[in-house]
Prior knowledge:
- This protein has 170 residues and is mainly alpha-helical.
- The protein has helices at residues 6-21, 28-55, 62-73, 79-86, 90-102, 124-144, 150-169; strands at residues 77-78, 106-111, 114-122.
- The chain has a domain at 62-128: Winged helix-like DNA-binding domain superfamily/Winged helix DNA-binding domain (Arc Repressor Mutant, subunit A, Orthogonal Bundle).
- The mean pLDDT is 87.
- InterPro entries: HTH_MarR-typ (IPR000835), WH-like_DNA-bd_sf (IPR036388), WH_DNA-bd_sf (IPR036390).
Amino acid sequence: MAKDNSADLVEAEEEEFEELFSMPGVSAMDTLDLRIGFLLHDVSRLRRSAFDQLMKPLGVTRSQWWVVAHISRNEGIMQRELATLLDIGKVTLGAIIDRLETSGLIERKSNPDDRRVWQIYLAPAAHDLIREMRKAEKKLNRTVLKGFSPEERAGLADMLTRVKKNLRKE
């Protein structure tokens, strides 16, 4: 069995970070803030990649699971609003929606008030996928949050929520 070198990699990354950003005239707080930015980016990337691996056996790509997850929380959302929510182009979203519709995971229905507007709903088959996605999420969260107390988890959620709100104000 291969030795897990993740702790060594983390330590090496931290040392490299200190070398790169511990410059004369740069305050400790500025260095810490920069490090937080790098950590947020790295954690987000690693978490997405790990979840992608869990989704691969289900035959769902990152863009597809991201869209399905948002539709599950916003049934009946208009395609235009979903594009805004996901911060992707309408044409890009349209192609993803086409693939999800072809695979039987979502349904497009015209808005009764304006037939030019499409609303997006999960198809019955998507509910099984959502259940599997939630199982995978639970498994991933056990790994990601290993060693965190319930209080630490709540604190982390609070801090990340505040960061998200701050970014939305920009």
